[in-house]
Design a protein that fits this description.
mainly alpha, two-stranded antiparallel ribbon, 6 helices, about 10% strand
Length: about 240
């Protein structure tokens, strides 16, 4: 026969024969905190409390953050079921023997007793406060280092992207320059070929003064830049 706790988790229905029958409860729909709060305020009932955050010392504290903090501390504040006696976190570490052999100095005991119970309690408070300060300092230092590593990683990624862009631009420029040089080389090859053919047909004419990058302007050979600077030029070889 099911106990009282089991019956409370089921829908209890009494049959005509007087037998108690347990029926499984229907699965309830999940309702958001916002909806429950709105329904509660509309009906005038007590307000719904959002337990995802809480206020402590005048500040909003995320309970999820507290949970993560607690989970991280469980290993340090507990014991590990290990046979390795060299670990002070092992449940088998002989702490009583360690205390018995190394922390039973009469001079230390006399000093502790001389300050009295109040002085001892005050020392514990001061020591705990200083440990808390040291712990907070180390925590902030670790976070600062993590932020610095993250910033360095982001900066490194940016520098890598910039370097890649510069390399791509350089490759593109080199390709364009190579293309231009290739075109100029082909021009020179064609020009020299034309000179040799002209020399073949007109051996008495001197063609050494011909320049592939000059044009005839006002009866002389000039660069294209000089012609363009004057706003036009005479490219007619008959002049």
């Amino acid at each position: 026969m099911k106990n009282e706790r089991e019956l409370s988790t089921s829908n209890v229905v009494k049959s005509e024969q007087g037998v108690v029958v347990n029926q499984p409860l229907e699965k309830k729909r999940v309702i958001s905190v916002e909806r429950r709060r709105a329904e509660g305020e509309a009906s005038g009932k007590r307000k719904v409390i959002d337990l995802t955050t809480a206020r402590c010392c005048g500040k909003e504290v995320s309970l999820e953050e507290v949970k993560v903090f607690t989970e991280n501390q469980k290993k340090l504040h507990g014991y590990v079921g290990s046979e390795d006696l060299s670990s002070v976190w092992s449940e088998h570490y002989p702490l009583p023997i360690l205390a018995e052999e190394h922390f039973q100095s009469k001079a230390d005991f006399d000093l502790i007793e001389s300050v009295g119970e109040v002085g001892q309690a005050q020392f514990i408070q001061v020591y705990a406060a200083r440990l808390l300060c040291l712990g907070r300092y180390e925590e902030l230092k670790a976070k600062r280092k993590a932020d610095e590593r993250r910033e360095k990683t982001v900066e490194l990624e940016k520098n890598m992207e910039k370097k890649v862009r510069l390399e791509l631009c350089g490759q593109k420029k080199d390709a364009e320059t190579s293309k231009e040089n290739h075109g100029y080389d082909m021009l020179l090859v064609g020009f020299e070929r034309a000179k040799r053919q002209a020399k073949f047909f007109f051996p008495e004419v001197e063609f050494d003064k011909l320049d592939p990058i000059k044009v005839v302007h006002n009866g002389v050979l000039v660069d294209d830049d000089e012609v363009d600077a004057e706003g036009g030029g005479d490219h007619n070889p008959k002049v």
